[in-house]
Amino acid sequence: MKRLQRLGIILLLIGSLQATAQDAGMKVFIDALMKKMTLEEKLGQLNLPGSGDIVTGQAGNSDIAQKIQEGKVGGLFNIKSVAKIKEVQKLAVEKSRLKIPLIFGMDVIHGYETVFPIPLGLSCSWDMKLVERSARIAATEASADGICWTFSPMVDIARDPRWGRIAEGAGEDPYLGSQVAKAMVQGYQGNDLKKNNTIMACVKHYALYGAAEAGRDYNTVDMSHQRMYNVYLPPYKAAVDAGAGSIMSSFNEVDGVPATANKWLLTDVLRKQWGFKGFVVTDYTGINEMVDHGIGDLPAVSARALMAGVDMDMVGESILNYSAKSLKEGKVTMAQINAACRRILEAKYKLGLFGDPYKYCDENRAKTEIFTDANRKEARSIAAQSFVLLKNQLLPGGSGPVLPLKKSGTIALIGPLADNKENMPGTWSVAANFSKATSLLTGLKEVAGDKAKIIYAKGSNLDADAAFEERAGMFGKGLGRDNRPAAEIIQEALNIAYQADVIVAALGESAEMSGESSSRSNIEIPEAQKDLLKALLKTGKPVVLVLFTGRPLVLKWENENVPAILNVWFGGSEAGYAIADVLFGDVNPSGKLSTTFPQNIGQVPIYYAHKNTGRPLGEGKWFEKFRSNYLDVSNDPVYPFGFGLSYTTFTYSDVKLSSTSLKGNQALTASVTVTNNGNKDGKEVVQLYIRDVVGSVTRPVKELKGFQKIELKGGESKTVTFNITPDDLKFYNYDLKYDWEPGEFVIMIGTNSRDVKSATVNWVK
Ligand code: BGC
Question: Which of 194, 253, 493, 762 has its CA 20 to 30 A from that of 384?
Fold first, then answer.
């Protein structure tokens, strides 16, 4: 055996011995503690109440202070600042009988005060180091402010853009979603939860929340186990395999039983099949809502949740209130209460809270590690890599494409989203300081410096309907309504536009048009903004659409009529600068879509990894009678999964396989040579898809199985090689057995899920 290998094995052994010793130490500690606990104190650990509004210096007078002192609270969430957290922790460790510290959670979803792109945007970077880095910085900032537990990553696969929460996940694909899930967990938790700058992850929303019928939030989910295991469950499992310390049950039902009372989901799959060792927390009032789901009254649903495998009750307090009675009636068992209590105590132990309950309450760290210049700089660079260039047409007269813009002349920035910093961070920016975010107008002006003149007009309201605009501007993120007639507001913008060489139109969704409880049945840019866009196009000046959105939108008309489209999602606190960096070409865009963009709402759900059906439409066709298609629209999307342009262009050679016939565990290599045809340096995400041509169950027409993000200088070529093993061919069969089946496989490599080169291999067992 090579020396290095031997050393590796020895280190692994030492590591696992240390872990076992830690586990043993933890067990002894918790056994001793639990012996002292009353039933009420045990139930207290399972309680995660809403914290209300705790004012600094007033924690002792807050509603929950009494409960904390009585040992009836296990943790709190969404409290911001070391001062407040310290004060509340003090109540627990000085005033409660057993002095058990509280765990402090927060929705640190895409950054803390330094805000990164919304998760959907971040996933479009297809750069796992960068995803991990964003979570690492988020953990550092959150932990510097007292937080040790985050309700992230959200890994719900979503194939319906009507669902507003598509913004919070990594899109439609289980492979990409699993990679992101893993990177996020590693970023938050690092390799040692005992450190004071790592925090515990909470994977959510387990499970299938993204498949709400009709894209209406909290709606019913009903799905085959085939789809569940092959498409929706893999990212949760990947996060569990990466060591996520906790998981959140979802609001929806699964197989007719709400996830929060679903024993099969929370115990059989999660613990028995996947070996999850952490704890399960419900979503916000998830237990109480089961009364409305219609599976029993409060005592009944609390008992069901506990017995199904819930360990912590978020906000509802019904486990605390009803479990003692249920225990007497034999509806819950002491063993289950003990198991849940132990898991919460274990999480606190793993975080090192028993050693030092104030571990995350270092005022000095809070002052020096949050929203630092270094973190903001990284956020700016990460944001730029999440943007997706959807279109970039050549200008008439041979002066090149519309983008990048020259840093000269006059640029008219127009649109309701152009000058609003509160809107930039995007949904679920709980810890953000909105006044510190940068608007696009400010970013553009600063990056242009004195080289180009930036002039601005609002041009339209977000929507013609004031009531809609109010709903879409919650949490202090209103856009400020202009009550003049629409024509007057447009005319003002046109007067500005006519003075410019180029128009940048900042349009789309406001931050709160996506996220929780923000489903839409119409996923187009609101009409009022489209009217503005049409008027701007009529000026005959080049128009760049800078599109803000938290979901895939229907952009058929825009794709046909607007010369350049840059999709910037919600890029976070530094997005104003990052957008300017990309518009001016200081950064070459390299994002690729992680969701399909439909031609119209009727095509939804539309996703690249669909099944072939028994009546597939021939390639390149629109309509054929008695084929699976529509009378009024082709089956194609406007932009396919994996799509995204660059300021340079890349070409792909044919796919070269190391062999076309393989046996058993042999490995296959598939390679292509990618060439940067332009003179600008650029990044390209090279994507590998595989089709399993014949299966014992039907298989998708292609599935993402790998990707590599490469950097190519202008004119440079690189060969990209993927190693493929039978593991990459595995799927859950009819009996839900995970294995691969011999036969023919089409290996496809390309720049997006549609434009691929392919080669075929025969693989026998
Ligand atoms: C959301 C969760 C979130 C929780 C706590 C719920 O409404 O569904 O994603 O973590 O609130 O804020």
Answer: 493
